[in-house]
Amino acid sequence: MALVKEDIAFIQEMIAKAIAEWPETNQTNVRYELELRERIVRVEEELKHQRELMLEGFKQMEKRFEQIDKRFE
User: Fold this and answer.
1) For the whole model, what pTM was predicted?
2) pLDDT digits (tens, 9 = 90+) for 39-56
């Protein structure tokens, strides 16, 4: 049972009508998606900051170890 082009066009019209009847659903999804993207960006920025802090801490620890090594020499 193959679909004729007319049937496909009719189905597309019905889908478009159904979507048009619920615009708040579309806007809600868009808002939710935007909120998620903003949250992801904030999390990525915080992770970058944490990584920078860790690297700085590692550098300071390395300096301390070098100072301790100098004491033993």
Assistant:
1) 0.53
2) 999 999 999 999 999 999
Give the residue carrying structure tokens 């920078």.
52
Residue 24 lies in a domain: no
Q: Does residue 7 lie in a domain region?
A: no
For the chain, give percent helix, strand, coil, nearest 5: 90, 0, 10
Q: How many domains does the chain have?
A: 1
- 4 occurs within a structural domain: no
Of 55, 36, 59, 58, nearest to 47 by C-alpha is 55
- The band of 26, judged by pLDDT with boundaries at 50, 70 and 90, is low
The rounded distance, in Å, linking the Cα atoms of 12 and 44 is 40
Whether residue 18 is contained in a domain is answered as no
- Our CA angle for 23, 28, 34, nearest 5°, is 130
